[in-house]
Design brief:
This protein has about 240 residues and is an alpha/beta fold. The chain is about 35% helix and about 20% strand. Strand 2 (about 30) and strand 3 (about 35) form a beta hairpin.
Length: about 240
């Protein structure tokens, strides 16, 4: 393994959180936590019934708050802390398991369950408490303008300028627990590879875009990723 990687970029998806007991919220039948996606994850749904949408995300918070990082999360935190080069994580997950594990450079492109954004001033409120149609923005003082800081279908992903920069600079791209179906994240590997990065896939089984990866490691990422991180750290000693 090349010990000279200077910029490592890790993309994580639902598969890494599933090993901490969190359900893969988006099911094959198009439901999200037993709700139609159109009812809870679109701007139209929020405008139509904001109280219902707020309640949906409030109901998810307790499970995500009590969830604990698994050995894959901990391995990535260790890599960031001890590796000589730069390590960044781009995650599609709205939980905070990477942060709980100790990772610092984490970009939640689909938003975070413990945040709400004010549609009046654009500032973000961070809270595990319930947010509803009466919640007052602590920054501008306006009530009833808070939206779950979750990227709804049709909205732009968060941090994309930063992600584009990371993809063009990384020399090692590692995808962990992603299906390779949801774009634009499924295309990140292609961008990284175009810029010369070595690409690794860690998954239970081959992702839809597995042909784009140089290396494939199949199995539970909580079992496969720690040894990969150990080899990376050993390679720079």
């Amino acid at each position: 393994m090349n010990g000279q990687y200077k910029h490592i970029l890790v993309l994580t998806g639902a598969g890494i959180s599933a090993e901490s007991g969190l359900a893969t919220f988006r099911d094959a039948d198009g439901l999200w936590n037993n709700h139609k996606v159109d009812d809870v994850a679109t701007i139209e749904a929020f405008e139509r019934n904001p109280a219902f949408v707020h309640q949906f995300y409030n109901d998810m918070k307790p499970e995500l708050l009590k969830a604990k990082p698994n050995s894959a999360h901990l391995a990535l935190a260790k890599l960031e802390k001890e590796y000589a080069g730069e390590v960044n994580i781009v995650t599609q997950n709205v939980d905070t398991l990477h942060e709980k594990a100790g990772s610092q450079k984490v970009y939640h492109i689909h938003g975070q369950i413990n945040q709400a954004v004010c549609l009046n001033c654009g500032r973000v409120l961070e809270t595990w408490d319930d947010v509803d149609t009466q919640t007052r923005c602590p920054h501008c003082g306006i009530s009833g303008m808070m939206k779950p800081n979750i990227v709804f279908f049709g909205e732009s992903l968060l941090y994309m300028d930063k992600v584009t920069q990371l993809l063009s600079n990384c020399d090692l791209f590692v995808s962990v627990g992603t299906s390779g179906v949801v774009y634009p994240a499924a295309g990140f590997v292609q961008t990284a590879k175009y810029h010369g990065a070595k690409t690794y896939e860690f998954n239970l089984e081959a992702a839809s875009n597995n042909y784009l990866f140089n290396e494939h490691v199949y199995g539970k990422c909580g079992e496969t990723l720690p040894s990969f991180v150990y080899e990376l750290l050993e390679s720079v000693k």
